[in-house]
Design brief:
Low-confidence stretches: none
Pfam families: HTH_3 (PF01381)
GO molecular function: DNA binding
CATH architecture: Orthogonal Bundle
CATH topology: 434 Repressor (Amino-terminal Domain)
Number of strands: 0
Shape: globular
Protein name: HTH cro/C1-type domain-containing protein
Oligomer: single chain
Helix content: 40-55%
InterPro entries: Cro/C1-type_HTH, Lambda_DNA-bd_dom_sf
Largest sheet: none
Order of helices and strands: HHHHH
Strand content: under 5%
Radius of gyration: 19 Å
Length: about 90
């Protein structure tokens, strides 16, 4: 199960989850995990699996990370430049 789905189902805020972790993390970091911008460490993934009673697994959490998530996908891609027509 995706972490954001679990939080919504359980009516648990990102800040509340952040506070349950040891050591606690920020709400902002949880948001970055959910958006795939930052990868969490194994200890955090195992803690979330325990907090969620196995509903969110370390594999689920690893799949959230998107290496190019920092790229703004809402922007249309730039058109590719046409090859220049050089005179022969």
């Amino acid at each position: 199960m995706r972490l954001d789905e679990y939080l919504k189902d359980q009516k648990l805020s990102q800040a509340a989850l952040a506070a349950l972790l040891q050591p606690p993390v920020t709400q902002s970091l949880v948001s970055q995990w959910i958006r795939g911008m930052v990868r969490m460490n194994l200890d955090q993934a195992v803690q979330i699996e325990e907090i969620s009673n196995g509903a969110v697994t370390p594999r689920d959490l690893a799949e959230m990370f998107v290496p190019d998530a920092r790229v703004n996908r809402s922007q249309p891609a730039l058109p590719e430049a046409e090859p220049s027509q050089e005179a022969a």
